[in-house]
Design goal:
This protein is of the alpha/beta class. It has two domains: 171 residues, D-Maltodextrin-Binding Protein, domain 2 (3-Layer(aba) Sandwich), CATH 3.40.190.10; 93 residues, 3-Layer(aba) Sandwich (D-Maltodextrin-Binding Protein, domain 2). It is 47% helix and 15% strand. α2 packs across α15 and α14 runs antiparallel to α15. The longest helix has 16 residues.
C-alpha cells in the first residue's frame, strides 16, 4: 500500500510540472524559448532569454534556428516550446488562415483573442517594431528603370529574376496572391534561403527579392525597398507568444516581457541585425549588450 501511495504522489508531482516548463532535480524551472531560422529571430531568442535569466531564478533553454512558422507554431502548442516571438500578420494569415487586414490594432486584437480561446496561448504586448515583408531591388536598377513602387515593378517583371524565401513562396500571404494583386509575370521565380537572397541580389544573381523590413543588410548593400502601394502586406508587429500555463505558474515572466513593449523601434532592430549580419558579432552578445545598455538587466 505504501509503495502504491508513493507511486501516486510521484505521478501527481510529474503531472503538475507539465505545461509550465520542465523542472530540474533541484526544483528550478526551465523554460524553452525558440526562434525561426534567421538572424532577427535568433536575437529575439536571446533578448527574451536574457531578460528572464537576468531577473529571475528561472533557467532558459535557448532553441534558435528551429525552422519556419509552422514548426514554431506547432512546437509551442504541443509544449515543445514555452515562448517565441511571432509577427502578428504571420499569426493572422499563416497560422489562423484569416484574410488580410491592414489595421495593426485590429490584427493584434483578433490574434490575441483567437490564440487565447483556441490555443491557450497568450499574445503579449508588441515589442515596438513592424518587420513587414518588403520587396527589394538594387538601388541602381531602380534608378535605371525609374521604379519606386511595387506597381512600377510589375511592368518590368517578365524580364527580371525573382527569388523569395521558401516560406514566402508557399504561404497564404506570399508569392501567388502577391503576384495576382500586382500583376507580376516573373519568369521561373525561385525559393531561396533568406540569408542568401541579400547577397544574391547585391551581386546581380537575382533582380528582385523579398526582405524583412528591419534587416540591416538593406542599407549596407545599397538595396531599395519598394513601396507597397496596394497595401498587400498586413502589419507584422513582433509580439511574444507564451503558453498560458507558463504565465499562470510564473506571472513575473509576463511582466518582464511586457517591460520590453514598445522599446524596440524598426531602426533599432535593424541596427541589432546589422551588428550580427554585417559586423559579424555574436547574436547572444549583441542581445545581452542591448539589455544591459537599456537597463533591463544588470551588467
Amino acid at each position: 500500500m505504501k509503495k502504491f501511495l508513493v507511486l501516486i504522489m510521484t505521478l501527481v508531482l510529474a503531472i503538475s510540472a507539465v505545461g509550465c516548463g520542465s523542472s530540474s532535480d533541484e526544483g528550478t524551472t526551465t523554460l524553452k524559448v525558440g526562434g525561426k531560422a534567421f538572424t532577427e529571430q535568433d536575437l529575439l531568442v536571446h533578448l527574451v532569454a536574457g531578460i528572464i535569466e537576468g531577473n529571475t531564478d528561472i533557467k532558459v533553454e535557448r532553441k534558435g534556428y528551429l525552422g519556419g512558422t509552422n514548426i514554431l507554431a506547432e512546437s509551442i502548442e504541443n509544449g515543445d516550446l514555452d515562448i517565441y516571438v511571432e509577427y502578428t500578420g504571420t499569426a493572422l494569415m499563416a497560422v489562423l488562415k484569416e484574410e488580410v487586414r491592414t489595421d495593426s490594432q485590429e490584427v493584434l486584437d483578433l490574434v490575441t483573442k483567437r490564440y487565447a480561446e483556441e490555443k491557450n496561448l497568450a499574445v503579449l504586448k508588441p515589442l515596438g517594431f513592424n518587420n513587414t515583408y518588403a520587396i527589394m531591388v538594387r538601388k541602381e536598377m531602380a534608378d535605371e528603370l525609374g521604379i519606386k513602387t511595387i506597381s512600377d515593378l510589375a511592368a518590368h517583371s517578365a524580364d527580371l529574376q525573382f527569388a523569395g524565401t521558401q516560406e514566402f513562396m508557399e504561404r497564404q500571404d506570399g508569392f501567388e496572391p502577391f503576384s495576382e494583386i500586382y500583376g507580376m509575370k516573373f519568369n521561373d521565380p525561385k525559393g531561396m534561403d533568406p540569408g542568401l537572397s541579400y547577397t544574391a541580389l547585391k551581386e546581380g544573381q537575382i533582380d528582385v527579392g523579398t526582405a524583412f523590413a528591419t534587416d540591416g543588410r538593406i542599407p549596407a548593400f545599397n538595396l531599395m525597398v519598394l513601396e507597397d502601394d496596394k497595401n498587400f502586406f498586413p502589419p507584422y508587429d513582433a509580439a511574444p507568444i507564451v503558453r498560458q500555463d507558463v504565465i499562470d505558474a510564473h506571472p513575473e515572466v509576463k511582466e518582464l516581457l511586457e517591460s520590453l513593449a514598445g522599446k524596440l523601434t524598426d531602426a533599432e532592430m535593424a541596427s541589432l541585425n546589422a551588428q550580427v549580419d554585417i559586423d559579424k558579432k555574436d547574436s547572444q552578445d549583441v542581445a545581452q549588450e542591448w539589455l544591459v545598455k537599456n537597463g533591463f538587466v544588470a551588467e
